[in-house]
Write a structure and sequence with these properties.
three-stranded antiparallel sheet, 469 residues, alpha/beta, 10% strand
Amino acid sequence: SSGTTCGAMSSPKKDESSVHKTRTGTGERTSSAARKGERLPSSTSRASAEGEGEGKKKPLTKAERRALQEAQRKAKAERQSSSAGGKPLGKQPSLDAGSRKALHSSSKQSSDGGVGGGGGRRDGRTITPTMLEADPLQKTAKGTKAKSQPVESHVKQVQLFSHLPQFERSTAPKRSLGLSSSIHPAIVRVGLQYSMGVVRGSNARCIAMLSAFKKVIQDYVTPPQKELCRDLETTIKPYINYLTQCRPLSVSMGNAIKHLKLSITRVDPGTLEQEAKDKLLGVIEQYVNEKIILADKAIAESCLGIIRDGDVILIHAHSSLLLSSLVHAHEKGIKFRVIVVDSRPMMEGRASLRVLVRKGIRCSYVLINAVSYIMKEVSKVMVGAHSLLANGYVMSRVGTALIALVAKAYNVPFLVCCETYKFCDKAIQMTLLKLVGDKETFFTTGRTCLPWESSTSSTTSRHLTSLPW
């Protein structure tokens, strides 16, 4: 014929290049595919060329190739379903007659050097039905490391607060302490007081932490060939980590730690050790006096212009700053009445009630579920604050937002007392800054037990959560 006829010959050796012979009307020309950089012919071309040249093997038809692909998809789907259902993965799925015939014909052609429909391999290896249906997890186990399965906790969690750090009794502060631990005894004592709830409140926790660091600085000795301004900062880092394990640091404690670290780095390396230690102790005392004590007195003086005779002031839980302001106003001769609103789980309003009653202030005590009933008698709402964020959010005891909404509904002024050292430069949603406490406090608060509480009842099935702040 006058057209072009192409024939492909496959060499039995991989290293030898295949040779194409092109036949035209004027003559023959032979070129090497490896020399010109051309790709080797595909398995489909080889199979079709051999079928035309020799007439021994026929290529797969379109229907057979489609049947082969359907069989592969069906096998993969059965493996995935058996894996999800917990069935053994090594079991081979059953195939119908058409699929079994297509797989048999493809395996037979692959053993002779080619497979139709893209089912072969370029390295000359034979693809069998067993290889097509092999367990996909075997390759993962041999080649890469299997992913570790998450360990389910035996403690139930509330889905609404699952993004928050969860309370766990097993993570007690004593776990991080060993026989060779270098944690200072003062830090250990403060950490245990934090975790047991003996020291509560932002101001009390910050003062206790700074007092512990004063003892650490007093007992500190600079190692040889080291400087105090660098080694002391490294020394207090594990102490801070230990306190964080006992209970997450408050914003006020974080600001105090930043101020202490900055003061340590500003110490002149040429200063004598005792002189540098005395300077750091003075910095801590100055910070407590200016940022906490004097700030509380200034806020108490400002409250004298807010509290008037005949006012009914509603407070929530316990705040040392707010109590000092109310006591100072009472000592100045202002006549007013206080309504203490308390809530679970800590019931800290009882401590506030004791302080105010001992000072001679008229008080009423209600729970937070009665705040809407009592709000019509209130002239002002005054609360303390854990922190004040940059976007205007106020962090305080759990239940403060509820009281603020009720006060807004009744058009009652809502006042927040907060020191400047509690200001935070972050702007975060309040749902990300809550602290999940121990759910057992719902059943152990108070001297008397609840009717359903007993020593034999199990609390593992109780789906509760406790939010201290």
